[in-house]
Amino acid sequence: MKKRILIIDDLKSWQEVYMNIFNEIYDLIIVDCFEKALTIIKHESYDLVILDIRLDNKNNENVDGLNLLKLIKRINPTIPIVIVSGFPEIFDKQILLDNKPDRKYLKANINIHVLKKDISDLLMD
């Protein structure tokens, strides 16, 4: 049985990249907003989450990828998360300092081979 990955990214171009790379290997669910992601993570089980930390939320500026990360970890403390960001200055200050073994951090200029390895490592494939 394929492992399940929840991808939370609001950019269609990145959604397509993830589908092209991982669709054959994993069971992918892709959502593009905070609300959908939170609903899904509360009701379904996943082996890993890929999260765009700079997730755009047009409805509520106080709700972003960082807040979603905290909520996901509160709901499922053991789920591994790959965090991606197109804004390294924010990414480094707020996320990298919280060095957890169940998380991998990648900046938006992702090397696909590194991404594949990080996911495999976290899923222990």
Describe the structure.
This protein is α/β, with parallel strands linked by helices and 125 residues long. The protein has helices spanning 12-22, 34-43, 65-75, 88-96, 112-123, and strands at residues 4-8, 27-31, 48-52, 81-85, 103-107. It has a five-stranded parallel beta sheet with strand order 2-1-3-4-5, with helices on both faces. 42% of the residues lie in helices and 20% in strands. The longest helix has 12 residues, at 112-123. The mean pLDDT is 81. The radius of gyration is 13 Å and the shape is globular. Strand 3, helix 3 and strand 4 form a beta-alpha-beta unit.
List the helices and strands and how they pair.
Blueprint: E1 4-8, H1 12-22, E2 27-31, H2 34-43, E3 48-52, H3 65-75, E4 81-85, H4 88-96, E5 103-107, H5 112-123
Parallel strand pairs: 1-2, 1-3, 3-4, 4-5
Helix pairs in contact: 2-3
Keywords:
125 residues; 5-stranded parallel β-sheet; 5 helices; 20% strand
**Mean pLDDT value:** 81
The number of distinct β-strands equals: 5
- Helical residues, percent: 40-55%
Q: How much β-strand is present in the residues? A: 15-25%
- Run of helices and strands: EHEHEHEHEH
Count the DSSP helices: 5
Overall body shape: globular
Q: SS-based structural class?
A: alpha/beta
Main sheet: which strands, in order across? 2-1-3-4-5
**What does the main sheet amount to?**
5 strands, parallel
Distance between the termini: 12 Å
Can you tell me the residue ranges where pLDDT is under 50 for at least 5 consecutive residues?
Answer: none
Round the Cα radius of gyration to an integer and report it: 13 Å
